[in-house]
## 1
Amino acid sequence: MEDFLNQIYFGNTILKYIEAIGIFILVLILVKIFQLIVLRRLKKWAEKTKTTIDDFILIGIKKSVVPIIYYGAIFLSARSLNLSDSATSILDVLSIVVVTFFIIRLITSTLDFSIKSYTAKQDAGDKKAKQLKSISASARIIIWGVALVFLLDNLGFDISAVIAGLGIGGIAVALAAQSILGDLFSYFIIFFDRPFELGDYVKVGDKNGTIEHIGIKTTRIRALSGEQLVFSNTDLTSSRLHNFKKLQKRRKVFMLGVIYETPAEKLKMIPDIVKDIITEEEKSDYDRGHFKTFGDFSLNFEFVYYVLSPDYATYMDTQHNINMKIFNKFKEEGIEFAYPTQLVYVNNADSEVNDITTVA
């Protein structure tokens, strides 16, 4: 039996191969015990808590830590054997690649979890998550790029020239893409400062519409007339932008002009008439009403009220109802609205009486 165990194949005795297999099986058994006992109990405990970080830790252990341990079992069992220099080098390179891969995978998973946790605490979290897809993708590219440089350095490649070239190239790209970088920074401003979000109705200059998409370089707005308006992010952050989502009520100022022949007692009635009409409306809040000016052809009253709804259709319906009631009430009270008129005096040479003609 001893002679059999001491037989050598590929530089190792059969006993050495048995020891290597034993190490591998032992590690597998320990990992399985860890999964069945420790992880299962941690999972039951995590299900009872309200936080999600413990669930994330369990997923990270299963997807990253456990695979590394499995590879560690292969590595330890293989290194217990007498390997050739080339086989040892291959094993070392493979170890660096595997460990780097799972570490970067753990980092990116942590990034995704952080983003989801952040958006879950925000208003309109689903919309925020859509906005963050671009940032998440860019961050992943950067992380994997750094990991690749780290991997090449650990594999013995001279990356100093590559890094220097990337630095010079990065400066050249930055100079050539100033507008793109400006829009990128404006994107971060929009995301963190939140001047507007997806679904908001905004007005920029003489253009208005609903925010449909917020990208790294451009933001797209769906206009009321149906077409899509495309703005660079820099244009939006540097412009005076009206956001109507935060609107809680709408202010309405309007003028009423009556003819100069209106009796004084009727003039006194006008503010009370209009006040009663506005107060009767369910979604309106009367502010003030005054006899404001003597116009060229009318006595002008100014009234102010608020429509207690941000909805534009409700605002117009309320204004319509108030205008109709004012018109009917004025007609009932015999109060005439003024319209532009001009008095023309005609001097008749054959008569001592001047003719007066009213021209509308």
## 2
Amino acid sequence: MKIRRKISLAFVGLTALLLVAVFFSIYYFAQRYTDSEFYLRLRQRATIAAQAYLEEDELNAPIYEDIRLKHLQQLPNEKEVILSVNINDKKVINPSNNLLYSGFYKKVFKNSYAEIKIDDTYYTGILYDDNEGDFIVVLSAIDLYGMAKMKNLKNILITTYILSLIFLYAIGQYYAQQVLEPIVTINKKVNSIRAKNLHHRLEPGKNKDELAELTHTFNAMLDRLETSFEMQSNFVHNASHELKNPLTAIIGQTEVTLQKVRTAEEYISSLEIIETEALKLNNLVNGLLELVYTEHSKKGIVIEPIRIDELLIGIKNDFDKTHPENRIHIDFSQLPDKEDLLLVNGSLSLIRVAIINVLDNAIKFSGNDIVHLWIKANNSTVEIKVHDLGVGIPQDEMKNIYELFFRGSNVRGVKGFGFGLPLSYKIINLHGGDINVTSEIKKGTLVKITLPNN
């Protein structure tokens, strides 16, 4: 069932319940008013009948009959019964109407008046005191006019109810169509967007409602998809380029070497070239494998407590061995008093790789200039800052720094593959942390790594 029909049926259903309550109330109170009005007429007639039959000195029965026939419309099946009663014992002497139960007479004795409806007949009884004794005057009749009026009212209400539901359903369908029309438009527009036209966006409109929010959500999703497609396209292009270069060099060098018999020195030189290109290819493949590894969830990663200050000291010692010319300076002046604040739960090998990549970039792109390394911690995070005085990153290229194989336009001559920072970014995010990079051309780059501590 479509949403439009659901909205229409829900609208009609709720309105139908409301109309049932309203129409039932109208019928109920109309019935009560009709009954009350007819009981009043019976009571008045009962009083006149009592005076006509019991007070012969004032008005005798023949005169009453004449007045009733000339001036009072006789009610359908109208009957009058006058019963003698013992007011002291509150008993009816020789009751002649077996339809009326004793409770009716008790109510007359108590209130001097009682009324009751049995089937379609209305009964009214009054207690009348006369010089000849006490009497109960019972007058009964059928309210044919009231019954016809209530039947007509019931038919009107039922007919109005059915027509109202039909009208409301039509109005509901039209209103639902108007409400859902923007959604239909959004649906058509979204279905028309393909990989080749991901730059298309939905029109949010002028209203600031839920549909506008939905449009903004779709546009944000399309932004992410377009970025992902661009990154994927760039990744395939750059990866194929980076893999092709060393393979081409290896194959070319091998073909040249095999064209004729070479001397031992020529074979050694050729093998050294092949080894260099093979090492580049090996580093590239290993980096890609590490990226694939970090794409997976934390399942299978060994989690252990890591002292960040000790890890940085160990990394600095390794750099001193592999790059003895490095000028990394570690500043421990902001260390917290509590050593526990420096503990981070995570994979030692992965976090080590992330920090090494950031430091390696800082050394490489600063021309081995001084690199400042700070560490500080609070009750929730450990923060590592790496600042170099290198060439910096152009501002218009900052949005691409986490893209695989991306390299700044001003560092194309520096060796590298362009997946060190993206790998570090994925590792830190895998551990619930964050990397923030700020840079300025020819003034250096600041990388801030934040990790949650214990």
## 3
Amino acid sequence: MLALLSVIWGINWPIIKFALTEVPVFSFRAICLIGGGLGLLALARIGGYSIRLPRHTIGVSIISAFFNVTGWHVMSGFAVAAISSGHAAIIGYTMPVWGVLLGALVLRERLTWRRVLSLTLGMAGLAVLAHDELSEINGVPYGALLMAGAALSWGIGTIIMKKVSWGAPIAVVVAWQCLIGAVPIVGGALIFDWSEIHWPSLWPLLAVIYNLIFAFVIGHYLYYKVVSIFPVGVATIGTLAIPVIGLLSGAFALGEPIGAPEISALVLVVCALALPIVTQPRGFSLARLRAR
């Protein structure tokens, strides 16, 4: 699931860039969130599950949706429009820093040497790539700051998702969070995008469809299913493959540059991903058994 998620979300970074060439940020996010939320509810219903949220989780769902959905999607959308898709992915995936640290502080998850070393290697790889982006920015690093804020928002939302006993299928929980988090985004679209809305051409339209089906319906389900199986520290470190795929796909689709910094970062991130599995295979085997 984590490997499939990495591919789906990794190649989505340049795809988002295609969509935003003709679809405004608020409108793009609103379409994907509403369609993705309804799609997840439909899948849950087809699977025979109730699509109601337990009453005791409604309040925390609103809080979680604000961080997981509204904060992440608004800030990351405007960031991708402002900077290259590959580097936006890199800065956005500083989220594992917040995931590991908040997991230790809030959930009392252990900061084992494997997680610390894996996190250090992975973040070193991201730092190599982020350095170029930050060094090229003149004045206020608008896009970089937005992406960093989006990463923090996502980290907080992930901790909330892990901490709460939802009492409902993960697809239902995520679906309602998409719909709840979409409310202020729809408001933003009505206020700011009204005069710019028009039917997009083929490639931006296909980019919207990909986001709706794969990035939102399938991707959101896979991510929170992984979080429900593994500790937050392990799950978030595992997502470090996504910005590498995003960088490579951005180079292929958009002609964004790849040089020595990108290659160095790739080696560091691969080592970060391999370390927990190679040094502690029994723990991952037990997690796979729990997943069944």
## 4
Amino acid sequence: MRQLRHFLAELTQLSHYCIIESIHREAMMKYPQVESSTLEFKVQLPQNDQIVKTVIGFSNQSGGRLIIGVEDDRTIVGIPEAEAAAAIEYLSHSIYTASTPAILPDVYTQTIEGKTLLIVEVAAGANKPYFRKQEGMEKGTYIRLGRSTVRATIDLIEELKWQAHGKSFDCMPVYRTNEENLDHKKIQDFLKKRKDRDAEKITKDTLLSYYLITQEHTHIYATTAGILLFGKQPQYFFSEAMIICSHFKGIEGREAIASIDCVGTLFEQFESAYEFILSRLSKSFVIRGPQREETLEIPTEAIREALLNLIVHRNYHYSSPSKIAIYRDRIEFFSPGIFSNPTIVNNLQSGFSYIRNVAICKVFREADYIEKIGSGFITIFRSYQERRLKTPSVIEGEGFVKCILPRVAAQADEFEELRPILDLFETATEITISDVMDRFGLTRATAGRKLQDLRKKGLIKKTGKGRGASYSRKG
């Protein structure tokens, strides 16, 4: 009997060991990285031209690797060695002949846990845009968007051309303009207020150094940056270079409570949009000694940085406005165009950044609006973390980037639901429960609950009892 118990104990121990070993082996069979804009998995060698499209997408941005023999969940399954060996020469030749300009990928095998993987690696191209020869540039140019490969728009194709020549759209000439379209007083004010710089007179060299003008042959044109930053009539030349700010009721964009169009220069747009956002959010007050401190429901520095990122990094080649939507539970900052560099979404909290608008960023930095390129998103995430609030998110879609700042739901609900009742005291010193019922079409129970909530928060006081009770503002 004792031997039997000993045998069963050993069997149980061996079973546990096998289970643990199996779990360990399964964990080791996962590929160490996850899919991203620069990494894609395929279980087996595709029979169509998807590999060519993916490689073109990598070349048009920051390069990347296509790994064949890995499941979407990162499980390594491998492919037959003979198939991998035969595919190396075939893939190199087919990608080279199908792409224009020609792409020379690095195709090789890698063995992990006895499984053979086929890897197609390509670097970022210097002769953008790359496209499928048989489709032509307009239809055959592809980019990486998150984990997907998508066809590039005409606007993005133009931007790829500028990148290949080291140019930025905001430094390009606006051919219907000249230096007289710039507001010299605004430029002089900027030169006086620059951070760590002495004031100077406006000269041709100064305007050229800030890329506010450019010269072609004997003619001087204002640049895109010059018009947007210091133009007398920015929207005359760029009608959609504006910000539409809206405050919606509830959590969907169906009923607008308030809305404004922020126009003018980029600095003027920033000031009006920032003021609008702050005016629509809830505030709390804390008494510290003789001082009363006001605190916004979400960090003001996060709002500021999200707004600045929307302005300085948006694609002004897109004929579409930027949008800011305030909902009960969040604020959305919608910017036309995708990130210039596909890896940016995965590295926002580490400060990685890519400058799309060279001139605009330079002026905003010297005007002391931004401290360091790439630090904006660090500030956003850190400020939310310090307040222990829900983490913000950044979404890159087809043709847009959206930054979402969560609001404090309880405070937002209070702001939306109770403020209309408080507004009744603007025209009356006292109200009754019947006044609330008649004004908002509420039942007696609901009206009573809302008034009770206001009393608990110390905002109103009750006089009398029963149906004859009345309510007045405290203070």
